[in-house]
Amino acid sequence: MTHIRDELLSDIPVIREVNSLAFERSDEADLVDLLRQRGKLLLSLVAVEGEQVLGHIAFSRVHLIPAVPGLDGAGLAPVAVLPSRQGQGIGSELCVQGLERCRQLHLDFAILVGHPGYYPRFGFQPASRFGLTCKWPVPDEAFMALELRPGALQGISGMAEFEPEFDDVM
Q1: Which residues contact 25 (CB under 8 A, 6 or more apart)?
Q2: Cα–Cα distance, 9 to 58 (Å, whole number)
Q3: Are 25 and 86 in contact (CB under 8 A)?
Q4: Beta-strand runs (E) in the chain
Q5: Rounded distance, CA 60 to CA 78, Å?
Q6: Distance (Å, whole) CA 73 – CA 61
Q7: Cα angle, residue 96 at apex, residues 24 and 10 outer, rounded to 5°
Q8: What is the longest distance spanned by two Cα atoms in the chain?
Q9: Of residues 166, 59, 165, the one with CA closest to residue 109
Q10: Coil, strand or helix: which one is 129?
């Protein structure tokens, strides 16, 4: 049975491996390591079965430009599952529990750049519907937002910006 929990210090090398294997490159693993080293991970969860780490999800701060005082957002990136365990609901459970934890942290919204066929099941929709833009050249349907607090993005517009580590690594 899979269990979701906060990452432990002993999980760090395995988290790196899970991200590298899932994405078939090291960029996402490098990003997570850099965010962790700089104290910018808001939330880092792992999916475990027994003692084996099967998946990982990370959240870091997102800022809006122009800034909106009192509005706190999180960027969901990355979410990764070992290739041999993909398609078994592990990534979905990481997303569901991660987003719930973000609500418990009183975050107002979450954004991501991801597959438009996957993330709407969690309530994400194109961020442009909320008046948000992305500084990276990504398709409108791939840049998505979710209100964690109903109405949080009502009347808001601006550019959503992930932590600078994203530009450093990606």
Answers
A1: none
A2: 15
A3: no
A4: 2-6, 41-49, 52-65, 73-81, 109-113, 125-126, 132-134, 143-147, 158-162
A5: 10
A6: 6
A7: 55
A8: 46
A9: 59
A10: helix
pLDDT in tens, the chain (170 residues): 899 999 999 999 999 999 999 999 999 999 999 999 999 999 999 999 999 999 999 999 999 999 999 999 999 999 999 999 999 999 999 999 999 999 999 999 999 999 999 999 999 999 999 999 999 999 999 999 999 999 999 999 999 999 999 999 87
In DSSP notation, 2-15 reads: EEEEE--GGGHHHH
Q: What is the pTM of this model?
A: 0.96
What residues contact residue 154 under an 8 Å CB cut-off, 6+ apart?
none
Q: For the chain, which domains are there?
A: 2-169 (3.40.630.30)
Measured between alpha carbons, how far is 72 from 63 in angstroms, rounded to an integer?
8
Tell me the residue length of the chain: 170
